[in-house]
Amino acid sequence: MNTKLEEVKILEIPKIEDKKGRGNLSVIEKDCIPFSVKRVYYLYDVPSNAYRGGHAHKNLYQFLIALSGSFDVVLDDGNQKTKITLNKPNKGLLIPNGIWRELENFSSGSVCLVLASEEYDESDYIRNYKEFVLVKRG
């Protein structure tokens, strides 16, 4: 798990604009993201003062999209931290394994869609930050 923050990426999701002014459509298919989706879930009704996440994965990759509203994703590779705000439904955040993530600062009505590379497996999670740092430093 030598993953670095540089491997976290914002990816464009193709957007099809309706020329009749009826709104936009975005599609995730083919090679839009670099993994096959095995699990989909979404977060909603999260209070603005709450946070989600607070873990890293040993194997799983995630792709996060702010379908509505906005939220911040705090990312940590054991050496560096960064914060990325997601607020556009045609851009998603690719988080590889080995990156600690926390989601915070949810706006009212925000919805976070998560596409995951694996089905749920509790043994894939590292939920203790001190353990995460020890694993990352080898």
Automatic annotation (TrEMBL):
Supply the CDD domains for this chain: cupin_QdtA-like (cd20292)
Q: Tell me the Gene3D superfamilies matching this sequence.
A: Jelly Rolls
InterPro entries the record matches: QdtA_cupin_dom, RmlC-like_jellyroll, RmlC_Cupin_sf
- Record-annotated Sugar 3,4-ketoisomerase QdtA cupin domain positions: 7-135
What are the boundaries of the signal sequence? none
- Which superkingdom? Bacteria
Official protein name in the record:
WxcM-like domain-containing protein
Give the organism the record lists: Xanthomarina gelatinilytica
Q: What is the lineage of its organism?
A: Bacteria, Pseudomonadati, Bacteroidota, Flavobacteriia, Flavobacteriales
